[in-house]
What does this fold into?
Amino acid sequence: MTIVPPPMTTPLREINPTKWPSPRGYSHAMAGTGTFVFIGGQIATDNAGRVTTVGLVPQARQALRNLRTVLAEAGGAPEHIAQMTWYVLDIDHYRAMLRELGLVYREIMGRHYPAMVLVEVTGLVDPAAIVEIAATAILPPGRPLLVDGGPASELNLDTQTPSCLTKEAHNE
It folds into this structure.
């Protein structure tokens, strides 16, 4: 008898009804099995917990970097994200910046498009923040969940990306 370990690929399957219009930049739904990772809202904070960028596109870039870093700490990658929620202060400004935001998204997250939600809010925890991004990922079965100090903590997407946000920097 041969025991084959489970695949280390993405555990997710896109669900896009055939009679619906094809989504662009998102999926209607995702399904999968494995270890769930719930990533709290990430804003454009630096290693000191301060928002140092101005503008929707630069803040979205840093928030996505922070989200990706937190996910890497759990042993995951962008292709493991099943659902993502964006909170913005101005939905019309978001719509006006879709092209630029799409470029930034692909730069940081690649071409994996999870189920997405966009919500306009009146404020975020840090008064300087104009976008916050939360996500749920599903790591493949059999994939080890990394702990603090594991290999993922060595990932540093840039000098502005924290390996994890401190409670003080992101206390809601």
